[in-house]
Specification:
Elements lengths: L19 H12 L3 H14 L4 H13 L3 H12 L4 H17 L3 H14 L4 H16 L35 H7 L3 H24 L6
């Protein structure tokens, strides 16, 4: 499955911000693949207008494109905490995509899942989340070392006349749950619900008649 590219720059939408000039230069540098210069411009925009989370999102996007994933975390996290759900979803998607590209599949799954909870219609976040989830499934649990605790003992022998033992809940896959932050069943249910919602959106869009002007 192909990894979906980073989000479009939010600065193209925030045209009335007082930091527009710096952001415009940053967007131009980004299009010219001058990512370090782009990050510097967006950093200036974020300092001039710290109340607008779009600049933090663009700063993190440019830093990520420049290969500075760890430096991108702080501005992306700040953008994700903002009140604008669209910007928050974009920031979480961007962080998850950076983590996915770096092979940090657990962090990627966490960020992409949070992005989808804010905006379940995002096909790009869904595809990258599915990729991170499958990569987590492919990882084998580490082998038990010599110092690891032994497996649990077998159940005690049943005595005559004793009531049958109660069925115990299945333990699931603790290694996967630790990495993904959810059980396999929860991850599968999330993917099914996203599929169903997307199909419903497509069905609704196909059946809504156009306006008769």
């Amino acid at each position: 499955m192909k990894l979906v590219a980073a989000v479009a720059l939010a600065s193209l939408l925030s045209v009335f911000s007082p930091a527009r000039r710096d952001a415009k230069d940053g967007a131009a540098a980004y299009r010219g693949r001058k990512f370090d210069d782009s990050a510097r411009r967006f950093g200036a925009a974020a300092k001039r207008d710290p109340a607008d989370p779009a600049w933090a999102l663009d700063l993190g996007t440019a830093l990520g494109a420049a290969g500075k994933r760890e430096e991108a975390r702080a501005p992306l996290a700040g953008a994700a905490r903002g009140a604008d759900r669209a910007v928050s979803a974009d920031a979480l998607y961007q962080q998850g995509t950076l983590d996915l590209g770096a092979g940090d599949y657990r962090s990627a799954a966490d960020a992409l899942r949070a992005s989808l909870l804010l905006d379940p219609s995002r096909a790009d976040a869904k595809r990258n989340y599915e990729l991170a989830w499958r990569k987590l499934q492919e990882k084998k649990p580490p082998e038990r070392s010599a110092g690891s605790p032994p497996p649990p003992p077998p159940p005690p022998e049943k005595k005559p006349g004793s009531p049958p033992p109660r069925p115990q809940p299945r333990s699931g896959d603790p290694e996967f749950e630790k990495r993904a932050g959810m059980t396999r069943q929860e991850a599968e249910a999330l993917l099914r619900s996203l599929d169903a919602e997307q199909r419903q959106r497509e069905k609704t869009a196909a059946t809504v008649p156009g306006r008769d002007w």
